[in-house]
Every structure is written in C-alpha cells, then in structure tokens.
Specification:
Number of strands: 11
CATH architecture of the largest domain: 3-Layer(aba) Sandwich
Shape: globular
Strand order of the largest sheet: 1-2-3-4-5-6-7-8-11
Number of helices: 19
Largest sheet: 9 strands, mixed
Helix content: 40-55%
Mean pLDDT: 85
Amino acid sequence: MANITDYVTWRGDLSFEQDPFNEVDALFFSCLSYVDFSGIVTDGVSISLSDASDLFFQIHTQEERDADKSFIRFAYHLMKQAAYVPRYANVILSDYVDHTDPASLIQFAVVTVRYSPDEVFIAFRGTDDTIVGWKEDFYLSYSTISSENEALEYFTRVQSGKADRIRTGGHSKGGHLAIYSSMETDRQIQERIDGIYDFDGPGFNDEVKETDKFKMIGSKIFRVIPENSVIGRLLSDTAVPLVVSSTEKGIMQHDPLSWGIEGKKFVALEKTSVASDVFDEILTQWINEMEQEEKKQFIDDLFSVLEASGETNISQISSVSLIEVKAMLDRMHALRRDSQAVIRKLLRLFIDNWGDVLLVRSKANREELTAPLRKLIEAKKT
C-alpha cells in the first residue's frame, strides 16, 4: 500500500499551478512541521524548502539523527525527498517558532509554508511519541494548555493585515491547535481560511462545538483518523472523520507514515476498530464523570504507570519486556482502586504483547485483568 513518501515521488513532478493543492499535500506540510528548523528558518528570513533541507543536513550529523528514537524522525527523510521535486522544492518556509519545555509539559512549534503567491499553509507541529508529549494531549480533556494560547498568538500575528488565502493543519496535537487558532482568531483572518486539516488530533468539549466561533469554521474542517485511533478519540469529534487504513498495528497507527494513500486520496475504511471504540467508550465515560481535579489525577495516574516502564517513548511502550511490564503493574496496584480498574483496560491498547504480559500474574489475576475488556469487545461485535 502506498504512503506519503510514494505520493511525493508520484506527484512531485507537477507544480501546484498544474495540479492544485489537495488533502495529501496537507498531510505533507503537517509532517514537515516535525523538522527542527532552528538556525535555518530564523526571524525575518524566508527560505526555500530545497535550501532549508541542504542546511539541515549540514547542521545535523548522522549521529544526531540516529539518536532520535521517536517516530517523527521520518520527517527529516521526507523533507530531503521532497526538496528535489518540482512540486515542493521552491515552496517558501517562514516564521518558524519552536518553544519546548519538557519540565512544563510545553511542546509547541509551527512554520508557515507559502506554496503559491497568494496561498499559505500554517503547519502546527503535533506531539511526538514521547510519554510527556502524549500526557499533554490527555491534559486537553480537562483544561486549556499553553500551546493553544501560543498557537492563537502566532496565527493572528503572522496573518494580521495580510490578504493570503489560508489553509492550516497538523498531525496529532497540531490538528487540534489548527482548529483552536482558526476558531479564536480575528474575523478578518478567519474569513480567509479555506481549509483546516486535522490528522488524528484530539477533539474538543461538546460545549465548544456549540459556540458561534466554532460554527464559523466547522464546515472547513477535514479530519482523518486511523482505524485504531487513540489520540484522535480524545474528546468529541469536530467533524465526521475519514477513517484511513494503516500498515501499523495498535497504537502505532498514529504514525502518519503508515497511512494508505491512493493517488490524491487516503485509502478509506468504513469504520474504526473495536479496540478504538472501546477506548473511546472507556475513557470518554470515565473522564466525563469526573470533576476537574479528578481528571488531572487520573491522567497523572495513567502516565505514572507508563513511566514506570523506564521508557520515554510510546513506541517503546508498545513492545516492552515482561520485566518492564511487571514494574508497570506494580505501579498500577499502588494506585486508587477506581483508577486501577480503568487503567487495566487501557493498557491493552498501549501494549502489543499484553497476552504474554499476563504470564507474570496468576491465572485468577489474568481473568481479572482481561475479562472486562473481553466483555466490552464481545458486546461491540454483536
């Protein structure tokens, strides 16, 4: 099945004048936001993608790139591939911002891409697959995060007084930020937005969807989630999603490089998986019943279990060893009983080898851990 790299090769010979912008171009620009353009796209400087790519690989050594264990490292290679095709080589990058502070759970980055004289794409960086990054996504379920305020400030600042037609989007949290900033920005800017692209990003509370601000931009949202979506099932959908096929399993379907593409379209499926639906049911119901402080405590509990593995990335969590899982289970059993019950069910969605994991428990405990999830899955099937 073809993916975004195949699309770049297939469509790369045609300029945007020859073949106008489409939904897969939106994914490409969203992925481009994962590249660290520090020292390349600087204040007041505009630079072509081709030149930016050359500088990036001069600045960052092979050793540095190899040290990056997150799934977003694919973005460097995607940029290098695109830098040599007519469609993307001469797009102009500007206004790059990167504010990352792991201690404060802040991961914010954005870049503006000009792909025609009067059209831009504002690409918000999403969450990488670090545990701290995903934790920030989950925090969206109970409060406004600092990245939302930074996204709005950026969107308004770079487009005030201009006449550009605007498209914006991002993968993961980046999709959420694109919607938030489009919804909250000045009306003069809002009216120039032609499309908002949300690739498996967290949604919004139901109250937000009822506001006049959201209704102004709701029809412009194009939303894509994979079959086993987790991050994209947080909170309420902002638009009916297109469910895309993926070559990955479980939680790693969040990786956009795994998504199927045919021509200028995503390979669509009829519906999300049972596992994704169970996650949505478990977490949505649980979160909705909580007060604000309880929501934060639950999220802290959930991620303390993941952190107990000793890993830093979700992709590593998905295939942890039995020893690491035992540490996670020990941490889980130190939590409040009500948190334990829900976290047991959610762990199945994070860990591919969960069946092997149960070997560290007694037969009675294996039944205790798996029976609730099996019951929900069987109910969904019928």
